[in-house]
Hints:
Blueprint: H1 2-29, E1 45-47, E2 55-57, E3 73-78, H2 83-91, E4 106-108, E5 114-116, E6 122-124, E7 132-134, E8 137-139, E9 155-160, H3 178-191, E10 198-200, H4 201-204, H5 218-227
Parallel strand pairs: 1-5, 3-9, 3-10, 4-9
Antiparallel strand pairs: 2-6, 4-5, 7-8
Amino acid sequence: MKLFQLRRVPRTLGAIALALLTCLVLLWSKPIIGQTPARSAPPPQIVKWAYPTNYGFRLNQDIYGQPLRNPLMVVIHETVGSADSAVGLFQNPNYSSEGSQASYHALIALDGTIIYTVPFEYRAYGAGNSVFMGANGPEAAQTSPRVPASVNNFAYHFSLETPVDGRNNADRHSGYTVQQYRSLAWLVRYTKVPESRVTYHKTIDRSGTRKDPRSFDENLFLKMLSQAR
Ligand SMILES: [Zn+2]
């Protein structure tokens, strides 16, 4: 009888300890109401750097010697072709002038994967001949006598991979995936650029030839942006 009681005490204590431990684990893992929601997981990200002829330095003065102090901004594009073909173009050495080169800082594939192609501290050649209408007036910088003024010196260029039915010159297509909007919102938040300095290539273009990003759902993007942390 004594032996039986001795055995029961540790078992009861063990059960109580296990219950307490379970409660602690549940409390620790479950968000408490009113607490800040957990940070959403970052999207998948890979690196496929462009060849260095396809991007340049961010300069601190223009060709006239005027200081360049524009705050950074974001320009949203679409690839029109596949993301792979854009990466192939950027990785191909191009020794011609900046006006005929092209690059973005990052591509966002249809599955939401972010593909980094130009380091953020460098100037990507994403929008030649462009002007951003900022809160204090038009903004552009001419950094080469052979190339028109543009926003490239102070821009991050992010490009959405175009869906298969949009790989043409039509005015619209079926649009981008939810994963692409989520990744784009995450990326814009990462740059800390305010919403007022996020724009589209077609908005800043002065060449009259750009209409990207076509079929962009601004409401969905702004919703994702407000949720991104
Ligand atoms: Zn563009």
